[in-house]
Description:
- This protein is mainly α.
- The protein folds into two domains: 59 residues; 67 residues.
- Helices cover 82% and strands 0% of the residues.
- It is built from five helices and no strands.
- The longest helix has 29 residues.
- It comes from Novosphingobium guangzhouense.
- It is a multi-pass membrane protein.
- It is found in: Membrane.
- InterPro entries: GtrA_CellWall_Glycosyl, GtrA_DPMS_TM.
Amino acid sequence: MTTTMMAALRFGVVGALNSLVGLAVIWALLRLGVGDYPANACSYAVGVCLSFVLNRAWTFAVRGPVGSGEVARFLLVFALSYAANLGVLTLMRALGFAHSLIGQGAAMAAYSVCFFLLSRHFVFAAGRLAR
Length: 131
């Protein structure tokens, strides 16, 4: 298996784990009486941090101190990937897939592919090359 394929597989595992942790955070906060929006926001905050740490260390095997530029690039890539998600979702709705798992699935796929490629080639590339 190529290094890109292994990284993509690890990226998927991190995403699945991130989703489970996010749901657990939402569940716990809702049980504590926190509202939907704050619970969702906390879940995303935990998820972004977990994703950064696991993808940096495990998916892309970056070592050494974390630089502020690396964190800023990661947050930018997160925002761009989410924008790609919304763009594809909007397109799918225009194509007749409103309120559809097909449209949501296409949007999720766009987010994941965008996030993986930008993480590999923009966020964590310098750290991988420095080894």
